Amino acid sequence: MTITPDTTGFRPDGTDWVDAHGDRMSVHTFDLVPNLPASLDDVPRLRHGLAVETAEVGGLVEAFVVTVDGVPALLQVVKLPFPDRPGQAFVATITVPKATASVVLRLIAAEGSMTGAREAAVLSDTIGETGSPDAFYAPHPYAPQSQPRLPWHRADDPRLDERFPDHPLSRARRWLRYMLATARLDPEFAALPPFGAPVSVSIGLPIGPFLPLWTVEERMTFWRMEDPGAVRAQLGRGGITRRPLNSAEGCEAGWLYPADGVLALSADGAPVRISAVSDETAYTSITSEEIVAAFDWIGELSVAAGDRAEMLLVRTAAVADGADNFVLMTLQNHGGDLSCVVETAPVPVGAQFWDTLPPLPTPEKAGFARPRDADQARTDGRLTMWAVQTWDLHPFRLMLSYKPNPSLG
After folding, report:
1. Is residue 237 within 8 Å of 312, Cβ to Cβ?
2. 162 three-state secondary structure
3. Whole-number percent of the chain with pLDDT over 90
4. Smallest Cα–Cα separation from 66: which of 43, 99, 91, 50?
5. Is a pLDDT exceeding 70 seen at residue 183?
6. Nearest-CA neighbor of 324 among 313, 333, 312?
7. For residue range 81-117, what is the model confidence (pLDDT) as tens digits?
8. Which residues of 62-98 are buried (b: 16+ CB within 10 A; e: fewer)?
9. What is the sign of the dihedral through the CA atoms of 352, 353, 354 and 357?
10. What pairing do the DSSP bridges indicate for beta strands 272-277 and 310-316?
11. Could you tell me the CA-to-CA distances from 252 to 167, 218, 232, 298 in Å, in that order?
12. Among the listed residues 89, 119, 102, the one whose alpha carbon sits nearest the alpha carbon of residue 29
């Protein structure tokens, strides 16, 4: 488990834990960049963004930057109305954000059949003190211009918890204090790069508006490109730093700034704006037309690579997906005549066009050569797509790499 809570006073209930009050504790791990409005170093902007985000569904009671097991974390308490009855629930969370992952320890403490007792008592006190109920409500201290569905008011003051020890808000805060003192993080998770720190990433295959990025540990996160055309204009043109895959071959790499939603691809090119999305969003949103367009674009990059005296390879990005799968696109010089060559392994059995070719002397590979012509990009792209379709692998699991072309050196 990424974070281990102290379950004293709780009993197991499925994957969660429940205490005598019915408060429900759970752990949630996310293998994607935390969706926070600012880094933990910018508390005012972080609080403002959180207050605005929660205003539509309820109200942010409080948010603090804390530490759990020595690691920076975000503490939040949010109040939410019940959808089907009077009253509200208080959701207390401790979020430990990392550069490309996060873990959330959560407690849901709900009002029972008696609702609003704390608010009614404090409202009565307010009227007695001021002669009016107006001072009970106030603009939200983190975002005064926001209009939360459940407004900020005096009854949420933590100094009242001792007066109302059994109220769900008091229970939530008591749980938070205990968990901050006792919860323990998995050492491997705790050692991940912190949220907001730049992360070195390898560039995956952009499809539609989505771009997969790979860490050195072969963990993939998905991002929506604000301007897909601007990103593609920088990729595959020879101006981006490469991460070595072996002594001769490298893939394009960049620096990801997760908290800012920025990807820097080169020293000379403008950083590109991106926003984190879930795996499900990326996989379910792209169309077959966008996949075809991605391979046509790969064909264009093969032309550019040939003009730089390089070979372009499409290969699996993760070792677990089969490190020996590849399609290579290159030019060969035969006495001044240039030929376009596409070579692939494993042999794409059942693939369009490839099944019509005679076998190569090396039975583990298939290949096709033709004189260079104006249709090189489209031909290279389509041949690559038809070969890759036999790998039983989603195109998001692919990566482009480059190596020198000795035939043109």
Report:
1. no
2. coil
3. 73
4. 43
5. yes
6. 313
7. 999 889 999 999 999 999 888 999 999 999 988 888 8
8. bbeebebbebbbbbbbbbbeeeeeeebbbbbbbbbbb
9. positive
10. unpaired
11. 55, 14, 12, 14
12. 102
pLDDT of residue 405: 92
Structure confidence by residue, pLDDT tens digits, 353-362: 999 988 777 7
Q: How many residues does the chain have?
A: 409
Token pair listed for 88 = 């509200």
Beta strands in 15-58 (DSSP E): 16-19, 24-30
φ, ψ for residue 107, nearest 5 deg: -130, 135
List CB contacts of 293: < 8 A, sequence separation 6 or more.
none
CA distances from 250 to 95, 103, 154, 191, 236 (A): 36, 33, 60, 27, 12
Which amino acid is it at 192? L
Q: Quote the strand ranges of 31-154, DSSP E.
A: 59-68, 71-81, 88-97, 102-110
User: What kind and span of H or E run contains 21?
Assistant: none
- Distance separating alpha carbons of residues 79 and 112, to the nearest angstrom: 14
Q: What is the pLDDT of residues 292-307, one digit of tens each?
A: 999 999 999 999 999 9
Amino acid letter for position 387: A
Structure tokens at 36: 């926070």
Give the residue among 272, 259, 269, 270 at the shortest CA–CA distance from 206: 272
Rounded to an integer, what distance in angstroms lies between the CA atom of residue 368 and that of residue 339?
A: 10
Distances (CA, A) of 105 to 24, 173, 191, 290, 329: 11, 13, 18, 38, 49
Question: pLDDT-based confidence at 38, cuts 50/70/90?
Answer: confident
Q: What are phi and psi of 118, to 5 degrees?
A: -65, -45
In the chain, the N- to C-terminal Cα span, in Å, equals: 53
Categorise residue 13: left if φ over 0, alpha if ψ from -120 to 50, beta otherwise. beta
What does the pLDDT read at residue 409? 63
